[in-house]
Amino acid sequence: MRYEAEGFAQRAQISEWIDEPCSYEEFRDSLCDLVRVNRLLLAYRPTLRWLGRLGVRARETLHIVDVGCGAGDMLRRIKQWARKKKIAVKLTGIDIHSHATRAARELEEDQSLSSDSGFDPAGAGSRIEWYTGEAYDYRPQAGIDVIVSSAFTHHLSDVEVVRFIRWMERTAQRGWFINDLHRTRHTYLAFRALASVMRWHRFVQHDGPISIRRSFSRLDWMRLLKEAGLPEGSAAIETAWPGRLSVGRVKR
Prior knowledge:
Blueprint: H1 2-5, H2 24-40, H3 45-51, E1 61-67, H4 73-85, E2 88-95, H5 98-109, H6 111-114, E3 129-132, E4 144-150, H7 158-171, E5 172-181, H8 185-198, H9 202-214, H10 218-227, E6 236-240, E7 244-250
Parallel strand pairs: 1-2, 1-4, 2-3, 4-5
Antiparallel strand pairs: 5-7, 6-7
């Protein structure tokens, strides 16, 4: 493939099938396999580790918003984490794609599919809110404490990533966290091999390596944070095995 020969010095400009029109059934099936990928590759761990640094006080309710929530598995895992930590949370998942929020609702309601992802059958009073549309249009009256995203920013152009960082910085009262992929040749080759062996959905086999090619290096994030106007050192850039590169900022 052409993009294999181009090297990994810069982000690739290649489309993913998940971003193109498809049936709801195919979209949902690919998201279900992505949930399996996230479990296997420990995708939740960087976000949960960062949330643990916030120092949430007793009797404080934390409103956490997940942008580009996809199947909603990150929020279901955060819900499980909050229950174990006895932290009160309000959880909102935002995705511009109506297929994604529809699938997230169904997976939350389907106890048999969601039990491993933190589904709480007794938690009817604390159900996750799903919002279809642009994150910039979501303006809850009480504000937002924390904004997180997972494998979302690599779908954006550099200009859009800068806008997203600026919006999070203005909007999130307690902090924000970007959990995304690390653009390295090793990660790319390893995922291609694993996806083939595991026989994941054809979207996952096609889009996963492209997602890695579209993702970021540490130098990318340093440049993007600077372009967004953040002071040097105000956000932490961290790697996590396997193949994750995250950016987070705790405000207070």
